[in-house]
Structures are given as C-alpha cells and as structure tokens.
Predict the 3D structure of the following.
Amino acid sequence: MGLIIFIIIFYNLIAKNNPKMQEKTKNRLPFFIVLFVLFEILRFSGAAIASGIGVLLALGMVASPFILIAWVINKARSIGKRNESKEYNKIKEEIKEDIKLTESVPKRRKIVAKFNEKYSLCLTDSQIDRIVEASYYSYSWLREIYDMDKTYKFASQWIEETNDWLRTYLYVFPVMDISTDFARQEQIVEDTYYAIFREIDPKSCFSVEECIEKINNKYMTRFDEKTFMEAYRFLQKHHHNFKLPGADRTILRNESEVDRLAEKYSGFSSKKQKQTVDREYSKPADDIPYVQAEYVYEPGSSGESASGSYVDSMMKGDRDITPEEVEELIRSGKISDAEIMEMIQRIYGSPDEDGDEDGDDDDTPQGTVGY
C-alpha cells in the first residue's frame, strides 16, 4: 500500500504537469505495478522479507516530501531563467488575450487527439506528444492547442483564425514533419510549399482548379482554392513568386488606360497615315499594287487632240490634280503621250519657264521632272 500511495503522490504532485516526467512515469508505470505484485507475493513468503520491504516503503514515504521540495526549487529556477530571457519577454508582449488552458499533460493531449480525429489531420501519437510538449514553453504552440479546444463548423474557420500557413499545412498534407521549435516549423512549411509550387507549369493548366487537381492527385493532398491560395500568399511573403495559370497579366488593366492611349493615337492619326502613304509610294514599281485611277479616261474619236476634253476637264476642276493621280493615269495606259506631256507642263510648267534667268540660250532645260 505504501508503494501505491507513493506513486499516486509522485504522479499528482510532480509528473502531472510536466510533459517529460509524465511520459517517463507513464512508460514505467507497468514496471511499478509488477514490482508491487512481486512485493506482495514475497511478503507472504517470510517475515524477514516483509519487514525489509516495509522499511523501503517507509523510507519512500519519508523521502517524498523532500522530492517535492526539490522539484519546487528546480521549477522556480527555470521560471526565473525564463522570465529573464528576451524571447520570453517578446512573446509575452505579443500576447493580446489571456489564454487559460489546462496545465495537465493528459488533458492537452486529449484536446489535440480529439481535434486530430475530427478533422483527419493525420497526426501520429509522437507528433501529438511533440505539440503538447512544445506548448509548455512556446506561446505559438500553446495558442494552437487553445484554438483546437474551440468549436468550428468547418475547418476553414479554424484555418482563418491565426497562423493560416501552419494550419493549412496540418490540414492539407497526409504526411507532416512537426518540430517543437516554431521557427524551424515555419522553415519546414516553406520548404514543403516551395517544392510543390516550383513544379507547377502554368502552360499545362487552363485554370487554378485544374492545377489544384493535378497536385492533389500527385501528392495525395487535399488542397482547395482557399488553402491553395493561402500557401501561394505565404510563399509570396517569403519572396517566392510563382506564376499561376490564368489570364495574361500583360494586357491593359483598366478602361482609363485604354482611353488615354486612344486619345494619344487620335492626335497622331493624320501624321501616321501620311507616313504610311509615303512608305507605300517609295516601294519599287513591282511591289506597288495597282489602284484604279479616280478619273477614268473614256477614249473619244481618232481625231481628238492633246487638248481634248478629258485633260481640260481635269485641269479646270475646283482642285489641282496631284502627282500621284498623274502617275496612276500613266500606269493605266489609257491616255496618250501628248496628253501626259500636257498634264506635266500644266503642273510643273514648260521647259522654257525653268530656263536660266541670265539669258542663257542653252537648249538643255535647268529643271526636269523625274520619275
């Protein structure tokens, strides 16, 4: 009986709120039970053995208060060291709400195990133990267990509350790596997301939904649009920019920019049109497409002279005939050489008019028309 009392006192006062000692006590409890059974059997074998066992039990009961005092002193020292650390003070400043969570190791483990079963997080027993152990010195892991003790209609409500990158990782992946150090846990999640997103080929997927389906089939994950974009934004915060399938992001983004460019184009439309015409007429003759002349010559009688009605009607109009129109008429082949010369003389003047003003009688004209 003394051994049983000692074990109960030791468990309730020391091991219950200490995850490491509680784990050791849990593993060694069968050994104590077997030892107690052996002592009970040996007690009936002789008075001498029984008396020796009684002495050991008595010593255990006497020593238990001293063990308790030693544990309290050790606990006070650890608390003092924790309060003096910069990391603890920083975490303490970040706490914006009073988190009241049970100090009992079995109860914290029960909270995580129940939540794991409800949402199929695929956490193993050893991973649950790591989370519970880390919750005693890491505020972030303590917050995770605290939020697991709440009620949610959907897993998305739990993911949205805080640490969405970690909760997405716990919810989506069937195989996870859990670290008691929260900073290392963040690095693990970043590496995992990066390994998946770097294999995404936007050209092979028509949409984000198709891309998610391919990832889920390949890695046995359960990404949806929400969790997929949570992981995408987490990588963006860590300077990993991946291109997702979708619309081309190089197109104009708003109507105001379209209006601005349209107004700019309208201001230069006439200039651009003139440059296009000049470029077309500067091409070689073989490359210029045939365009029907605006004025079509209707051949008259055989006795019609170079000063016929057709040339006169063109030159007497309200507007002057342009060199381009003359060129089109020449290419059409429907006017005579005399009529061509008459048009050219009326446009550019006769050779005598372009002669030397100093009275030079040279027959060679100083100005010619070149095509």
About this structure: The chain has a mean pLDDT of 74. The first helix runs from residue 2 to 15. The CA atoms of residues 293 and 332 lie 8 Å apart. The chain has 17 helices and no strands.
